Amino acid sequence: MNNSALSFRAKNGQIEIGYDGRIHIGRKGWFGLIYQSVMRSPTDFYAQEVKNVRFKNPALMRGYVSFETEKGNSTVWLTNPEMAKNAQRAKSMVEEMRQSAEVLSE
Q1: What is the CA radius of gyration of the chain?
Q2: pTM for the predicted model, two decimal places
Q3: Which ranges constitute the DSSP H helices of the chain?
């Protein structure tokens, strides 16, 4: 996604959120392929499709940000404060896009 509103790397993938509300979770390498196929989580979806966004701050254990859609959950792990800060921004951004889409559809 060349024109992204927010893009950051997490422990097991990269999240990109476009200005149009498109969310892409990219994973690289063989582990990424295996993780993606075993978890059956979507890699591309729109903010309007997100039913819930869960966030857990990393502390003694790793944290995460998870996007729940009809197709499944897409989760990336967070291991440091910078990742957590970006994940909180992503959560807020997706929730705002979702609310805007709901208002427009009414």
Answers
A1: 13
A2: 0.81
A3: 29-39, 81-105
Look at residue 1 and tell me whether its pLDDT is greater than 60: no
Write the DSSP assignment of 10-27 as a string of letters: ETTEEEEEETTSEEEEE-
Q: What is residue 48's DSSP assignment?
A: G
For position 4, what pLDDT does the model report? 84
**Amino acid identity, position 21:** G
Which of 33 and 26 is assigned the larger pLDDT? Answer: 26
- DSSP category for residue 9: E
Contacts by 62-65 with C-beta closer than 8 Å and gap 24+? 62/11, 63/87, 65/10, 65/15, 65/90, 65/91
Q: Decide if domain 4-105 falls under CATH 2.30.29.30.
A: yes
